[in-house]
Amino acid sequence: MNLKTWGLKKSIWVFHVSSGACNNCDIEVLDCLTPRFDIERFGMVLVGSVRHADVLLCCGSITKQAAPRIKRLYEQAAKPCFVVAIGGCACSGCIFKDSYNFAGPYDKIIPVHAYIPGCPPKPEAILAGAVKLLSTLK
Amino acid sequence: MKTVIPIGPFHPLQEEPELFSLTLDGETVTDVDVRLGYNHRGIEKIAETKTWDQDTFLIERICGICSTSHPIAYCNAVEDCAGIEIPERAKYIRSIVGELERLHSHLLWLGLAGHFIGYNTLFMWGWKWREPILDLFEQITGNRNHYAMIKIGGARRDIKNEDIPSIRKCLSGLVPPLEMITKAALDDPVLHARLKGVGILKKEDAIKYCAVGPTARASGVAIDVRKDEPHAAYGMVKWNVITQEAGDVFAKAVVRLLECFESVKIVQQCVDGLEKTKGAEFCKEVENIPPGEGIGHYEAPRGETFHYVRSDGANRPVRHKIRAPTYVNLPSFKASCIGQTISDVAITLASIDPCYCCTERVAVIDPKTRAKKHITGEELVRLSQEKTRKIRDGLLKGSI
User: Fold this and answer.
1) Where does Mg(2+) bind (chain B) (predicted)?
2) Is B335 helix (H, G, I), strand (E, B) or coil?
3) Contact between chains at B41 and A96 (C-beta distance less than 8 A)
């Protein structure tokens, strides 16, 4: 493990991306920040700009209008940047996959490093996914 | 000098992608415009391809926070079309789930409002006291959000008698923190300074812009579907419509906080009703939906949500139309935001408790001029006639 990865593992800054979500995964992501789950004990902080982010927490199916913007958002993030797809829609498109405005699940648009399925995944599942992602960093 | 400040589409202030363009003259906002479509998933069209029962699951996924309001409105519409009267126990179950949802939604808004003005203590408090409600949901419905409790003809599953003590316990445990948070929020000099007199929506403006829900009630318009057209168990229990006169962001917070207590009252009475109707039928068997059309509405936490369905007697709707509360409340920004300073506009935009995933529509934008395209009624008729002609020609040629 080099110094950079060691530093990254201690304090991951996350940015929240929502594109065509029903809001539920977004709420559960925010829920992780609140006293019951308190994601900050793993050194994770929600940041306001994608340029500060190490991890993108992505929710929702991607709509045609959001797709180019999501791509740009990923390009703006400093690398290494990990993408976590949260919820059934972000992983596969789920119930919206037949929609005329559906541009694909996240892995069609940007590389995805972890999938957390569920509708919506419980905050515990989101935490478990984040911790699993951390354990893969070498 | 005029400046245009964009907020969005991916902005830390908002959870959902949408773009607000604020036109500023110095610090003062002179115009506000919204561009939607980032979240548009085409639910009305998908609904036409699924069966009546499958649609309740799809419609739940319009919005994660009002995930019971939309199915109730949809089922009301289908039941209106088919002329079904739901059993008494189902009415109580619908009201209980609906009101618990209002409780968690209002606490969520309070937290987010605190977050937006940089008062994170309120955010942590509000969300901490929201957790027991979600736990209760998990116990009685099986999921923290997206409860899937509503079915055409009644409720999908019963609330078991063993769960009733925990509903009562949760409610009685919720009242003291609610009282604490209400007093703390309403007596807080910081909140007074930050929210009072900000983003005032006058009564006549609320009526003019057709505002609904807490946005209208905070401006003194006593509009509430639960009272005006009682369905579910709302006609069978005692409760009050909360109104305030001031119309500013503070009044909207007061309305939402006091509504929480009314919701607790409603759930307590509905639980009594559940005990009375112990063992009774909670869902009617619905064989088919006759041709016709139906409307249904429900007072979602953000205001009236309206659903329209048309049936041709088949197993799926021919047309399903949704009108969500935020869509109606958005134009009121023209009255409440203009003339404010930019620092106050952030909280004013949040004050209607906007939910863009409910609201999303397609906007056609000309990429060269960046102008929005407006389609008039006559054009819509012409477009639909053209489409019918195309389909007919396709059928004749055998290509479809």
Assistant:
1) 44, 322
2) helix
3) yes
- Predicted local distance difference test score (pLDDT) of residue A20: 83
pLDDT at A9: 82
For residue A28, what is the enclosing H or E element? helix A24-31
* Domain membership of residue B383 as a residue range: 364-397
Contact A28, B65 (CB under 8 A): no
**Non-local CB neighbours of A91 within 8 Å, separated by 6+ positions:** A85, A105, A106, A115, A116, A117
Q: Note the pLDDT of residue B400.
A: 53
A99 vs B contacts (CB less than 8 Å): 41-43, 45-46
Residue A121 confidence (pLDDT):
92
Is the per-residue pLDDT at B11 higher than 60?
A: yes
How far does the CA of residue B129 sit from the closest CA of chain A (Å)?
Answer: 10
Residues above pLDDT 90, as percent of chain A: 32
> Which tokens go with B65?
């926070």
Query: How much of chain B exceeds pLDDT 90, in percent?
Result: 50
Rounded CA gap, B363 and B68, in Å?
27
Please judge whether B62 and A24 are an interchain contact, meaning their C-beta atoms are less than 8 angstroms apart. no
Domain containing residue A106: CATH number: 3.40.50.12280
Cα→Cα distances B207→B202, B329, B340, Å:
9, 11, 21
Q: Count up the domains in chain B and report the number.
A: 2
Residue corresponding to tokens 């309001």: B69
SS3 of B295, please? strand
Is A112 a member of any domain?
Answer: yes
Q: For residue B39, name the pLDDT band (cuts at 50, 70, 90).
A: confident
Check the CA dihedral A46-A79-A116-B41 and report its sign. Answer: positive
Residues of B in contact with A119 (CB under 8 A): 61, 146
